[in-house]
Amino acid sequence: MCELLSKCNWKHHYGGHMAEPVKTIYVNGDIVSLDNSNRRCQALATSGDRILALGSNEEIKTLATTASKVVNLDGKTVLPGFIDPHGHFFLSCYFKRFFVDLNSPPIGDITSIDDIQTKLKETAAKTAPGKWITGFGYDDTMIAEQRHPTRYDLDKVSTEHPIAIRHISGHAMTVNSKALELGDVTRDTLQPQGGHIQIDPSNGEPLGILEEPSAMNMVQGFLPELTPEKAVEAVLHGSRRYLGTGVTTAQDGYAMPELLEIFLDTAKGGQLKNRVHILPGGNFELNQYPVTTSGTDLSGNNMVSLGAVKLLQDGSIQAYTAYLSQPYYTLPENRPELAFNYNGYRVNDPLEFQEQVTALHKKGWQIAIHANGDIAIEDCLNAFEAAQKAYPRNDIRHIIIHCQTAREDQLDRIKRLGVVPSFFAVHTYYWGDRHESLFLGPLRAHNMDPCHSALVRGIPFTNHNDDFVTPINPLLSIWSATNRLSTTGRIIGANQRIPVLEAVKSVTTYAAFQNHEEDIKGSLEPGKLADMVVLAENPLDIDPLKIKDIEVLATIVGDEVVHGQV
Which helix (H) or strand (E) segment is 480 a member of? Predict the structure, then answer.
């Protein structure tokens, strides 16, 4: 059992005196601190929204007053609250609340284009002509036809409604003829930089399949404007969903400017129950911030914090838009325009990209860049190194999001440059078999999301779900990084499996470090926020194969039970 963390620690964090009485005493628990010693304790005390002390039942009970609430954990496991190191909190909430769910198993039930059409027709029947129909989550490799739906497929749903459906990767979408007309996308439209309009080889007309933001934005700008009412509804609906998985800090990984006030208002009003770390992206006006420092509290109550500026340098391997040094393993038979040695493509010219990164770095921003392919990863590292050489800074922690096909030599550079890779380990579960047989081939698939290679180098890495791409589920992320099993039960890269403790840290301690919030989050220590998840079993003790099935009994934010009960 761990030693009592003394009141001197409390005084250090709280200005030398107990500003508030002991609020809650948690006893008879299996409390995993994840501090530097990875201590496990029986009991924990809080004051206000912070942790006061940890220790044995007897030690912690001595701190109680007549006003203190005593909670008997009855052997339950308590971990630091899960931190989502990369996801799209608002979009995932918005899609799940207002879009048609077109996911295939194991997430949804779509197995064919006919299934897609049936679900969209159900929505069309309830939607006035001329109004948009939107869906998300279709996966061309998980449906019988083994292809993207086209404009012609969606025209069979309706020609009176504009229709847009998002690929599960988020890096492609299919629209119908009505939507193409609104966007003025025709056979004469020039291919956009960093994106692609797929063309029907039989007639030269757009197929309705748009790859990457530069192409998708030709149509997305005509979607209905986001109303504040719908935004608030989506945020609050999503907050409940995240808390149900033990997430105490979500990430909005490409935050739209109009959402900042929504987050701040719901946080200050008390409706937002999970914390949100925002990464400004898109057309976000960066000058609106008085500081550029990641981890800065924007809401005054630690509910909304500022993160890195988000950039993109390639797309998705599943969408064939990630940029690889070696060609894709196989190519879709229905994509004759793809050359035999097709490698994907960049979003930005590398020299212009370096200039953009350097300018942000000079202003003091932490920078997070989406890069799946190893050439895109190389572009990121070159840009980070050039920026640091021009304007040296300490403890930057620039981030490469996904970093899926990072090579061993690139991990050496990541270590040297102090870059934080945020891996998408559940790739092995959702797409492992197809990465091996379709996209990457066995060698690259077995080394994708190289958590073990990062671990042996002492690189603090994180591990995410990328919700809306895959549903938020930190326990599945831990399970995937530990077991690397596909949906068919095959091990995808046994050499990249990591110990459970390190997998847990990838969604707690290391995630807080990535966000520059390690002083207040990521472990259970005096002075830190009392953000905790209560589990029915301890992932450090049970069979690793059972981790994804552990029940989340309660989620606690700032010592307030916001999901379940203890």
Answer: helix 474-483
- Residue that the structure tokens 């700032």 belong to: 558
- For tokens 């930089």, name the residue: 193
Domains recognised in the chain with CATH numbers: 7-75 (2.30.40.10), 110-220 (3.10.310.70), 308-506 (3.20.20.140)
**Which distant-in-sequence residues (6+ apart) come within 8 Å of 35 by Cβ?**
523, 524, 525
State the Cα–Cα distance between residues 211 and 356, nearest whole angstrom: 23
User: Is residue 463 classed as helix, strand or coil in its secondary structure?
Assistant: strand
538 dihedral zone (left: phi>0; alpha: psi -120 to 50; beta): beta
| Residue 42 and residue 56 in contact, taking contact as beta carbons nearer than 8 Å | yes
Report the half-sphere exposure of 389 (CA within 13 A, side-chain side): 8
The per-residue pLDDT for range 47-93, each reduced to its tens digit, is 999 999 999 999 999 999 999 999 999 999 999 999 999 999 999 99
Taking the CA atoms of the chain, what radius of gyration do you get in angstroms?
24
Q: How far apart are CA 73 and CA 78, in angstroms?
A: 9
Tokens of 214: 């530069």
User: Each residue of 469-528: pLDDT tens digit?
Assistant: 999 999 999 999 999 999 999 999 999 999 999 999 999 999 999 999 999 999 999 999
Q: One-letter amino acid identity for 442? A: P
Q: Which two tokens stand for residue 262?
A: 């929504």
- The Cα–Cα gap between 13 and 525 comes to 11
Sheet architecture: strand order including 50-55: 50-55, 43-47, 24-27, 69-72
For residue 228, the tally of other CB atoms under 10 A from its CB is 12
Q: How far is the C-alpha of 11 from the C-alpha of 344, rounded, in Å? A: 56
Residues contacting 106, CB < 8 A, separation 6+: 430, 487
Q: Can you give the pLDDT at residue 13?
A: 37
